[in-house]
Amino acid sequence: MTSIDIRLNIAVIDENPLLAGGISALLGQDSMFVATPLMLGAQTGPMAPQGFDVIVMDPGQSGQSPDDLARQFGAGGVALLAYSGELSVELARQCISAGFRGVLPKTVSIEVLKAALATAAQGGIYIDAAFSAAIVQHVGQPQPPKPQEDACLSARELFVLKSVAYGKTMKEIGKELDLSSKTVETYKARGSSKLNLCGRRQIVEFAIAQGWVEGARLSTV
């Protein structure tokens, strides 16, 4: 697992208080984590809980779309981790497109959950193999477009597309590269055009297929 110098404040939100409490207790045995169990609805209400680095939740329980959950719970830079009891390919795709920093089935070990939390807290994306393979190979879903043979991304174009796949905004990428958001958008457009990609969803799917999204930190070009 990737090491982090500070303890991570984690909220575990679930409609089952025993599950939320059990996961929080297991995480709390590791000095890296401070975990708080919250019951969906009863303790979260219309406002997102405050003061957490990562929120772990089952998006299938709320009745809200992943986009709505991201707007409600992901404000202020809080990382969201989908911890789902429903192995739905479409739900996984929607969560990643909405900006969730990870998608995991509830059957994973606590060590895998810890790794996903550390990755999400550092700005990476952690997608369990059960989902990543399905996202790019799901029967009946279009495959991520392959690069054109003559496509040759510049270092900046590659960095920008990888950053977009990791869920970063144009402003965040621009700050890392010391460029304006408009210039970053130009690099994104050029790179997308070379790879025949349209929109963030296709960029994310292409990144998964190419192995770009592996939870590692991106280095500034």
Architecture overview:
Helices cover 44% and strands 14% of the residues. The chain is an alpha/beta fold and 221 residues long. Strands 2-1-3-4-5-6 form a six-stranded parallel β-sheet, with helices on both faces. The model is unreliable at 137-144 and 215-221 (pLDDT under 50).
What is the CATH superfamily of the largest domain?
Response regulator
One letter per element, helices H and strands E, the order comes to EHEEHEHEHEHHHHH
Shape: elongated
**Beta-strand percent range:** 5-15%
**Number of E-state strands:** 6
What is the rounded Rg? 18 Å
CATH domain class name of the largest domain: Alpha Beta
How does the major sheet shape up?
A: 6 strands, parallel
- How does the helix and strand content classify structurally? alpha/beta
- Order of strands, widest sheet: 2-1-3-4-5-6
Unreliable runs, pLDDT <50, ≥5 residues? 137-144, 215-221
Architecture of the largest domain, according to CATH?
3-Layer(aba) Sandwich
Task: Say what the CATH topology of the largest domain is.
Answer: Rossmann fold
What is the number of helical segments per DSSP (H or I, 4+ residues)? 9
State the end-to-end CA separation. 25 Å
* Number of structural domains: 2
Mean pLDDT: 78
DSSP helix fraction: 40-55%
Summarize the model shown.
The chain has helices spanning 17-28, 66-73, 89-98, 110-121, 129-137, 155-165, 170-177, 181-195, 199-210; strands at 8-14, 33-39, 54-57, 79-84, 102-105, 126-127. By secondary structure, it is an alpha/beta fold. The model is unreliable at 137-144 and 215-221 (pLDDT under 50).
